[in-house]
Amino acid sequence: MKEWAASLSVLFILVASNQVLAQILPDKSLQRVQPVRPAPAGTFPLRCRGGAVRAIGFQQFSQTASRLTVSFKRGSKPASQGLNPGECSWLDRRLRDAEPASICHDVTDVFLSTTHNHNSQYTPPDLQLLQSAWSKSAPYLEKVRDPSSYFTVHVKAEGTCLAVKSLP
Asked: Which of the residue ranges 98-112, 116-130, 153-167 has the most confident prediction, judged by mean pLDDT?
């Protein structure tokens, strides 16, 4: 009888502790991975990993029109199978050699931090080196240099680049 009472006590303790844990720990059924929003018609989601991007460029066409360009390495496999730092790839397949290896984004706002470098090996010898870039229109720029960051943009091929048409 004592063994049965002890077993019953242990059972009540386990049930009570499970109820306490249920109140403390979040419900796993409520934690779902948020799916990537569907891309607008005619565009496709491109997944990128920050880090060793090849280049960040900036062109100003007028006081209200500018274009950011981020050159990257083509992913050798679908983004769903992982990316190396500085790579971009489609979610379901690798980027083909004939597809552009840069994204371009027309923005109206941009902040650039540059440093001046004089090197007689280059023509012209005076260079402006981009230290950082930020744009409210292109929030992924904050992730471009961080190898632990990933970002997705919805793009459409336009000439020599994949033009950003929307952000997820």
From this structure: 153-167
